Structure prediction request, 234 residues.
Amino acid sequence: MAADDADVALDGFLEVENRFASFLRAVPPSSEHNSVHSPILASILLDSCSLIETVLKSTMDNSRYEGIARITQHRSRRYTQTPPFLNIGDLRSVFKGDTLYAKPVWFLPRGKRSFPWYKWRQSTGNPTWWAGYNAVKHSRFGNARQAKLLTTMHALKGLFLVLVQSLEFRQRLVERGVIRCEGATAQKLRADAASWEPLPTKCSEPVIAVSSLLGYKFLSAGSGSSAGSLSVFI
Prediction:
């Protein structure tokens, strides 16, 4: 089931990323375009954040989270049809220990990195792009201007990071070539990918996750620091 879910999640991400890449061919990513808003971006923003919720809800079944306070309650609220519903604050309380806030994602076409979950370094507070998502979700008309290019880009980065961090999905992501390491066999990398960072991979070559637009470097036994330049993805 994990492999099937990983395929659904990855295919969903790739479809959203492809739509964003198409938009960037008309509106290139640059500082003067950061506030450009569009119904196309609204759709991408909504789909990205909806998939983030789906991935995180699935991921919290992993035994890694057994010691989280009120984990049984959080799990029981994921798919209920009546309030109280699981919200972003609940997700932060479950996943804050994973230090997503300290993990940079690279936007490869411009060679720039950012920390899409940086706001989770605090005990309260959520990413500003999540606020944009909520605004657009509740009023596509009234809050259309919240679907900005930069907001959508950070949401896509946030989705990419939670996808490659999901322990249940990683072996499948290795099989599909998203997670790779030039110096490790696929069999070894599949086994290592099931571990939390730093991965036990001792190869000096970096373990990376790469899509057409985004990149992330895993911490590993052979390469214990974040990517300092775009060169690790080339």
Summary: The radius of gyration is 17 Å. Residues 3 and 172 are 6 Å apart (CA to CA). DSSP finds eight helices and five strands in the chain.
